Structure formats: C-alpha cells, structure tokens
From TrEMBL, chain A:
<dbReference type="GO" id="GO:0005829">
    <property type="term" value="C:cytosol"/>
</dbReference>
<keyword id="KW-0378">Hydrolase</keyword>
<dbReference type="GO" id="GO:0004331">
    <property type="term" value="F:fructose-2,6-bisphosphate 2-phosphatase activity"/>
</dbReference>
<dbReference type="InterPro" id="IPR051695">
    <property type="entry name" value="Phosphoglycerate_Mutase"/>
</dbReference>
<keyword id="KW-0413">Isomerase</keyword>
<dbReference type="GO" id="GO:0004619">
    <property type="term" value="F:phosphoglycerate mutase activity"/>
</dbReference>
<dbReference type="InterPro" id="IPR013078">
    <property type="entry name" value="His_Pase_superF_clade-1"/>
</dbReference>
<dbReference type="GO" id="GO:0043456">
    <property type="term" value="P:regulation of pentose-phosphate shunt"/>
</dbReference>
<dbReference type="GO" id="GO:0045820">
    <property type="term" value="P:negative regulation of glycolytic process"/>
</dbReference>
From TrEMBL, chain B:
<feature type="binding site">
    <location>
        <begin position="9"/>
        <end position="16"/>
    </location>
    <ligand>
        <name>substrate</name>
    </ligand>
</feature>
<dbReference type="GO" id="GO:0004619">
    <property type="term" value="F:phosphoglycerate mutase activity"/>
</dbReference>
<dbReference type="GO" id="GO:0005737">
    <property type="term" value="C:cytoplasm"/>
</dbReference>
<feature type="active site" description="Tele-phosphohistidine intermediate">
    <location>
        <position position="10"/>
    </location>
</feature>
<feature type="binding site">
    <location>
        <position position="59"/>
    </location>
    <ligand>
        <name>substrate</name>
    </ligand>
</feature>
<dbReference type="InterPro" id="IPR029033">
    <property type="entry name" value="His_PPase_superfam"/>
</dbReference>
<keyword id="KW-0413">Isomerase</keyword>
<dbReference type="InterPro" id="IPR050275">
    <property type="entry name" value="PGM_Phosphatase"/>
</dbReference>
<dbReference type="InterPro" id="IPR013078">
    <property type="entry name" value="His_Pase_superF_clade-1"/>
</dbReference>
C-alpha cells in the first residue's frame, strides 16, 4: 500500500488576524482565507483523491469542503485537531508563544497538550485512514509542524514560528509506504495564489 | 406534517467561563459542560427522534454526540449562533452585551438579530420531518426565536441567563407554522 498525503493548513481566520490563541478553539475563515482555499481547489482539481479528512474545527472543515467541492468524500476527525492550549485559548498569541515558538514543555499546566502528544495522535490518525492512493488532509500549523519535524532535520532545527514554517493553505506532500512516512516536498504556499 | 423540535443549547464552554464573545468562533466544552450533556443523555434517552442536527460549531456537535451517540448527526451552518463579527473572541462586558443583544451586531460586521433568527427558523423548516427532531444550537438564536413566538417572554437578562446551557425548549411545527410548546427547562439535565 502506498498513500500520498497532501497535508494542508486551514485558510486564514479571524483569530489569525486578531493574533489570538487558536488551538482547540476556533474562528471563521476570513474573506482572504476563503479565497486562498478556492485557489487551492483550482490547483488541485486534476488530482484524484480517494478521501479528504479534516479536524473537527470549523475552519478546517470549511477549508476542506471548499477544496473538495463535492468531488470526493470527506470526513471530520478529532485526531487531526490543533495542539490544545488549554485555558490559554482565546488569549493573546504572545502568551502561548513567549519567544515566538511553542513551549517545549507544552501546555499541560493549562489543561492542554504537549506538542508531542498532539503529534502522536495526529500521526496515528494518518495511519488509521491510510489507503492506496491520494488523501487530502486539512489540519493546523503547530501539529503539522510537529509531525514534519519527525521527518525533517531542517524543520527540527528551525526556530521559526509554526505559522511561518507552515503558512495558511500551504501544501506538504508526505508519502506513507511500508509503515514509514517520508517528506516529499516542504510546505509550499504557492498554490493559495491564483 | 407535525414536527416537535427539542431545542438544546450546547453545554458550557471555556469561552462562556472566560466571558468572551462566542458566536461563530468556538471553544471546547468544560468538564461541567460535558457532565450536563451526559445528564441530558439520560433525560432524553427514551424519546424517539426521527432526526438529529446541530450547528457546525464543535461545541454543538460535541454536545449532540454526548446526548445521543446512537443517532446519525447532521450539521448545518444555519443553526449557528448569532455572528458577533469583529467582536468574536473579545471580552464580553455583560452590560454592553445586554444592550447590543437587542440591536444586533451588523454595526461591527456581524449579524442583525432578526436576520439570524430568520435563517435559524428557515433551517428548522428545512430539516423538519414527521415526529421528534433533536437540535443542538445556541443561546441567542434560541432566545430570539422564543421572543418572536412569545412577545411576552422577558427581555431583561442576557440570553446566556435566559437560555441555560443544556436547557431544552420545545417547539412545534404544524404545516409550516411554529408554536412554542415549552419554555427553556433544565429538568432534562437533572437526571442521574
């Protein structure tokens, strides 16, 4: 079995604009976010997807449905959700990223998750839905980055903010074969443009 | 055709506790919110539902799942809360909110209160089937619907108080006409 995952971060949201912490909480896509997803739909139209899956956060579900455009089946899975920041949700971004990056010790002190815990359930979910063919995934910046860090030394060593390394509506291709994930292409935001 | 809607407000959330504007934005159910939703499972387990629906906000989807995991859920944008526009996620001072809840939030790119009530009631009509329909939705749209059907319903406090989390309001729809059958009640969540 050979699964080609297209891993996409949701389109830009109101809380992205307002610089508020948005992990297990959610806010609507902005007009810009909807336009980004529409361009992605057009660029990916020729690829035959067996399935599209997103987290259960509406920003991801909406991004997925715009891209899928009823062309292939979709489902919503809790395992694809963003890192939970616990009671910090909705607070100014600076509180969760004091030095512009995730707290390595995570957010369990606030009732949330560690990046590692989130990465494990994300990866487990990918393994569970893997089928022969192409699968489109819509998920979130921090959890996608944490997953890609297990596959790429460059990303592991980067100190950049998750939202910069994994931009809104970027596409990352990851191959899953013989129980092993391989990073094929780095996060690429070019397809969110016309 | 006769439909009886069991209108449930979602369980208590983190943003309810933090007093943040939460219309189309969303936050997870608190432990208490989950406990009430599970209690509602007991309170409503003997009712035969022909259809189950919630808004597309995860707090409503999760509440529906806790109440009746045995039913196939259907999700509708039209069942979402009033949209507070640019205020989403901001601290909601209760006094300001009390005033603007009767004016609406079109002034800050959100929804007008009547506009929200109409798309909510239109969605109920669309999903109506013969029998009982379980709907998990939100405080302001449920509150406005009640006030539209019963103008004597009090207007003082905020919808957050008038429509408690996990309360159940009964609404009949007979051949296209709505009737309020029972005001919001928390008795269904008192079951053990």
């Amino acid at each position: 079995m050979r699964t080609q995952f297209y891993i996409i971060r949701h389109g830009r949201t109101l809380f992205n604009d307002k610089k508020l912490i948005q992990g297990s909480s959610d806010s609507p896509l902005t007009k810009e976010g909807v336009i980004q997803a529409g361009h992605l739909r057009d660029h990916l139209r020729t690829i035959p997807f067996k399935l599209g899956a997103s987290s259960t956060s509406e920003r991801a579900m909406d991004t997925l449905e715009i891209i899928a455009d009823h062309r292939f089946p979709t489902e919503y899975l809790k395992g694809l959700k963003e890192v939970s920041f616990g009671t910090l949700e909705g607070d100014p971004l600076i509180k969760a990223f004091p030095e512009g990056k995730l707290l390595r010790e995570g957010y369990e002190a606030y009732g949330g998750e560690t990046p590692k815990t989130a990465e494990r359930r994300f990866e487990k979910t990918l393994r569970q839905i893997a089928v022969d063919g192409n699968i489109l995934i819509v998920s979130h910046g921090a959890v996608i980055l944490e997953f890609l860090r297990t596959l790429s030394t460059e990303l592991r060593e980067s100190e950049e903010f998750p939202g910069v390394l994994v931009p809104n509506c970027s596409v990352t291709k990851v191959l899953y074969e013989q129980n092993t994930f391989t990073l094929e292409t780095m996060p690429d935001a070019s397809m969110r443009e016309a | 055709m006769h439909t009886t809607f069991y209108l449930v407000r979602h369980g208590r959330t983190l943003f309810n506790e933090k007093h943040l504007f939460q219309g189309w934005c969303d936050s997870p159910l608190t432990e208490q919110g989950i406990a009430y939703a599970k209690a509602l499972h007991n309170g409503l387990k003997d009712i035969p539902f022909a259809f189950a629906a919630s808004s597309t906000s995860e707090r409503a989807m999760d509440t529906l799942h806790y109440i009746r995991p045995d039913l196939t859920p259907h999700y509708y944008k039209g069942l979402r809360e009033l949209y507070f526009g640019d205020l989403e996620g901001d601290p909601s001072d209760l006094e300001t909110k009390k005033e603007h809840d009767w004016i609406g939030y079109a002034y800050c790119n959100g929804e007008d209160r009547t506009q929200a009530r109409i798309r909510f009631m239109e969605t109920l009509k669309q999903i109506a089937v013969e029998g009982n329909v379980l709907v998990v939705s939100h405080g302001s749209v449920i509150c406005r619907t009640i006030q539209y059907l019963d103008p004597t319903f009090q207007r003082g406090p905020s919808p957050d108080i008038l429509i408690p989390n996990c309360s159940v309001t009964l609404l009949d729809l007979d051949d296209g006409t709505f009737h309020l059958r029972a005001l919001p009640s928390t008795k269904y969540r008192e079951h053990d």
